[in-house]
Amino acid sequence: MAAAAGSEHAAEEGTLSIYKAARRIKRRESTLYNALRSVADDAAFVAEIAALWPALPLVANLRCGLWYAQPRSLAATCYFKSTDGHAGNWG
């Protein structure tokens, strides 16, 4: 019985949880190039959408979106913090 329990524990250690696998991928993908490429891609997307709907105001979030648009193209800014997935975790 002890051998079976030991082999189950070894099998669990050999299998990554989804969380651990995602963290490993994130660490592998977190390079300066990928970060800058992501910002450039997001900025291109914002520019494309702004061009498709020029009558809509372009508003940048000061927390995490100001660098995605040229300052002269902004109608306004805001300060918004999402709490998605962090219910009751206001600190």
TrEMBL record:
One of its GO terms (molecular function) is tRNA adenosine(64)-2'-O-ribosylphosphate transferase activity. InterPro entries: Rit1 (IPR007306), Rit1_N (IPR033449). Residues 25-90 form the Rit1 N-terminal domain. GO terms for cellular component: cytoplasm. GO terms for biological process: charged-tRNA amino acid modification. Pfam families: Rit1_C. PANTHER family: TRNA A64-2'-O-RIBOSYLPHOSPHATE TRANSFERASE (PTHR31811:SF0). This is Rit1 N-terminal domain-containing protein. The lineage of its organism: Eukaryota, Viridiplantae, Streptophyta, Embryophyta, Tracheophyta.
